[in-house]
Amino acid sequence: MTQKPGKEKQEQDLARMQRQELKAELADNYAQLPRRPRNRRRMIAFVVLGVIALLAGVFGWLVLLPSSSQQSVTGIAAGAGAPEFTLPIYGGSGVGGSIDRVPLFRAYLYAIGSTGSIRAGGHQSS
């Protein structure tokens, strides 16, 4: 009976060594495996998102650039009297007619200034 425990211990040691060799062999084989190809769908999705982000960045940059023209394009100077005008009537009983600018308001109508605010005054400018 004393041989049996020694023989079992030898078998266990042998089995342990075989497991360690198998682990080492599996680790070597895993290290030498060729790498899996990249996921094409994921790569395409990220490229598309990158292009969209790039376009958004360029658009934002162009929006924030200062304007090349700082002059008014209305044709009259800021603060000058408003030009003569008529307002067409599109509804109601006077359809097709027009309302001429009332001369009474001539002193109060001025062109919009460069700051975007409407200026009004009590006297007529010429």
Description:
It contains two helices and two strands. The chain has a two-stranded antiparallel sheet with strand order 1-2. The longest helix has 29 residues, at about 5-30. About 45% of the residues lie in helices and about 5% in strands. It has about 130 residues and is mainly alpha-helical.
Helix content range of the residues, please? 40-55%
Q: Helical region count? A: 2
Question: Can you list the strand order of the major beta sheet?
Answer: 1-2
Cα end-to-end separation: 130 Å
For the biggest sheet, the summary is: 2 strands, antiparallel
How do the strands and helices of this protein lay out in sequence?
Blueprint: H1 3-31, H2 40-64, E1 86-88, E2 98-100
Antiparallel strand pairs: 1-2
Summarize it.
The model is unreliable at 116-126 (pLDDT under 50). It is built from 2 helices and 2 strands, in the order H-H-E-E.
List the defining traits of the structure above.
mainly alpha; 2 helices; rod-shaped; disordered C terminus; 126 residues
